[in-house]
Design brief:
By secondary structure, the chain is α+β, with helices and mostly antiparallel strands. Helix content is about 35%, strand content about 15%. A hairpin with a 2-residue loop joins strand 7 (about 140) and strand 8.
Length: about 280
């Protein structure tokens, strides 16, 4: 079997297991956008599971092209990409995973001394440590260490060894920047988080965790209209998770922290949360 066909077989196997995949070309980079998607004129694919407005049949938009759709992966445009592919990549966040990419021996030594053991995969220069649970992706959290999860891709280098463990606080803490010397440190929210006691619609706790993670990302990545973004994000979270009582103080604190890191005051966070509850009749 030729190498390109081998990549396609690997991709189909991963997709069948629920891991969103995409082909990589020479240089270990995604394929460039097609003409109709150039400069994201199509609207792009912003969502975690290839559900954005773009209807392009090709593997455009880097990590956002990752899919578990076996028909798409085997379609004509994708097949031509697999012929040219040099590797298979996957979207860790879409598979509910986080990869700590350790780029050299020093980084590996640091991880062994500071992070909980988990599944490890050898790379060309170091290791991938794979944890169960998503978070936002951040490069260069320390020398030789990148975090790849939501809105990022990682090369598939095999299943590795060891037992995968749940994403620990030590890894989440790597993505937290030092508080600004200009803005006040975020305060814990004073708004009651448990706003409902209805029947829980969540199939698993992971559904709620994913919603909070994506909400944090939406606030963190906002470049303008911060007030509006915070309010609309709070509104979306409460609409999806606010009536069943699963939303805890810790979840709300994460949202308030993300907002205050963008410059929002504790007062505005409280007002935005209260207004969102009022708009939803809570």
């Amino acid at each position: 079997m030729s190498a390109p066909n081998s990549h396609l077989c690997t991709a189909l196997h991963l997709a069948a297991a629920g891991v969103p995949v995409l082909p990589l070309r020479a240089g270990k980079v995604p394929f460039g956008n097609c003409r109709r998607c150039a400069d994201n004129a199509c609207g792009g694919r912003p969502n975690m599971r290839n559900a954005g407005p773009c209807a392009c049949p090709g593997p455009c938009h880097a990590w956002a092209a990752a899919t578990t759709d076996l028909d798409v992966i085997q379609s004509g445009v994708w097949r031509r990409a697999w012929v040219r592919a040099t590797a298979v990549a996957y979207h860790p966040g879409g598979a509910w995973l986080t990869v700590v990419d350790l780029d050299n021996a020093d980084a590996v030594t640091w991880a062994r001394e500071n992070l909980p053991a988990t599944q490890t995969v050898p790379t060309t220069r170091g290791e991938h440590w794979v944890y169960l649970g998503p978070m936002r992706s951040v490069n260069a959290v320390r020398p030789g260490v990148d975090i790849k999860s939501t809105m990022a891709y990682a090369r598939w280098l095999g299943p590795g060894t060891g037992t995968m463990t749940t994403l620990p606080a030590e890894v989440r803490a790597l993505a937290v920047k030092e508080p600004s010397t200009v803005r006040p440190a975020p305060h814990a929210p004073t708004v009651p988080a448990r706003v409902g006691d209805g029947e829980c619609r969540h199939r698993t706790p992971a559904y709620l965790e994913r919603g909070i993670t994506m909400a944090e990302q939406r606030i963190t990545e906002a470049r303008s209209a911060i007030h509006t973004t915070v309010y609309r994000t709070f509104l979306a979270v409460l609409s999806a998770h606010g009536r069943c009582g699963c939303l805890t103080d810790a979840h709300v604190a994460r949202l308030f922290t993300a907002a205050q890191t963008k410059g929002e005051s504790p007062r505005h966070c409280t007002d935005a949360w209260t207004n969102a509850r009022t708009a939803l009749g809570m």
